[in-house]
Amino acid sequence: MRYRILLACVLGSVGGSSFAQTTIPATMPTTMSETMPTTVPTAVSRLVSQLASDTWRDRQKAQNELVRFGDDAVPALVDVLNHTKDDELRTRARAALAQIEENRATGPSTITIDLPDATVDEVVKELGKQARATLSLNNMNGNPVLSARKAFKVERVSFWGAVREIDRVFGIRPVEWGNDQAMTFVPGNMGNNPLGGPSIEHGPFMIVAVGANLTRSVRFDAAAPVAAPVAAPARGGGRAFPGGGQSDFSVNLRVLCEPKLRILSAQWQPDVSEATDDQGRTLVAQAIPGSFNTSMPGRGWNWNQNVRLSLPAPDAKRLAVLKGVSHFVMQSKSQRKELVNLFDKPHPTATAGGVTLSISDAKRDERADTYSFRFSFNGAGIDMQKWAFVSQQLMSGVRMVDADGRVLLPSKTNENSNGRKYDLTVAYSRKRGLGPEQPGEPAKLIWEMSVETKEVSVPFEFKDLPLP
Fold first, then answer.
1. Domain boundaries along the sequence of the chain
2. Residue 369 φ/ψ, nearest 5 degrees
3. Taking the CB of residue 13, how many other CB atoms lie within 10 A of it?
4. Of 21, 26, 62, 169, which is the most exposed, with the fewest CB atoms less than 10 Å away?
5. Could you name the CATH architecture of 19-106?
6. Tell me: the pLDDT tens digits for 127-173?
7. Do domains 110-196 and 343-442 have the same CATH topology?
8. Secondary-structure class of domain 343-442 per CATH
């Protein structure tokens, strides 16, 4: 536990919200979304009036519902602050606005899209706009799904609910794409469905139960196995056999997060509090000390976790319950720098979060449509304990775009680390873009550096899962 908290502390604050100020951020919209149904202003007005209810439960419920409306509730809440003197109304309006602002960065998105005649590209762009994320379509080699126009409507659903509806209407689903691991939509027949299987949503996260594995192995070069197994080994859910055999049982989970989030590290295995088969046998194995994988490349939004359990009863058919918590360290605050004139000398530099980024070399190979850059990150003012964590995240915060904002994906990277200096040579190709349109020459380097993090616990509970 101490190591887990250390990871969350090393860049700054842990846990608590940084949106406690009562001033309204200038970035908040004051108009309704173009795709929002006309019934929304009426619903928001009704909820605002319920903030003055005589019943505390009704007041709290109205506040929570206003938060779910997100940006579309902001004008009405700001109006309360500007024209109401009632202290409780003002307090609740401020609290709702603060939570909406926090959700913009790290909370769940609430999606409403009403497009009666749209292409999938238009729908995905609107989803990305509302979810504050960079989403794209794979070229798909002229797949007719790109030009098909269909009616698409979702109202106040989660991000993942909107993604499921896109799959249902257009037959495309998200995958991780390129070294950046960005979310890209492809036809449903390309690979496995990351949303397939029993699932549970929690805030901006969704946990999917993928499958279960029950294996038994034996070593031929060991002593002959005996029929009766001995006690399970200390580190896991298997059962050892004197003859060198081993049996193991595990459940595979897939943890998805909204692509606007930046997950910096994840615990290898979730903490399991309850696991029972349909014969009543407890399957919770002896706990393995939790550790984090501190190398999360790109902006990954899809992680696989393996839950090791004790063996079920011989005649068990179902996993009656599996309950636990997955742990992540997430960026809660960052500094963003943009570097331009990348090929000019002297090359540009920028400093964020105590780290200085400089471009020491930039080359064009226009015949091959490739561009090579050498980045140097210097954290001379950072202690080694913090640098050990920060240095794992540096490349994931770098994004190269052309003059129109189209993303170029890295085609090759080489790295070298020496003390508090981290050198990275990256080759970008115009043939490797993020989306159906080929990007142009690199024009801007966008660098996002984490300066505050928080640990996030994502609970899950699955029932009645089949056993192998």
1. 19-106, 110-196, 205-332+455-466, 343-442
2. 55, 40
3. 15
4. 26
5. Alpha Horseshoe (1.25)
6. 999 999 888 887 666 677 778 899 999 998 999 999 999 999 999 99
7. no
8. alpha beta
- Which pLDDT value is given to residue 202? 94
Query: pLDDT confidence of 10, banded at 50, 70, 90?
Result: very low
The tokens of 12 are what? 């700054």
Overall CATH class of domain 110-196: alpha beta
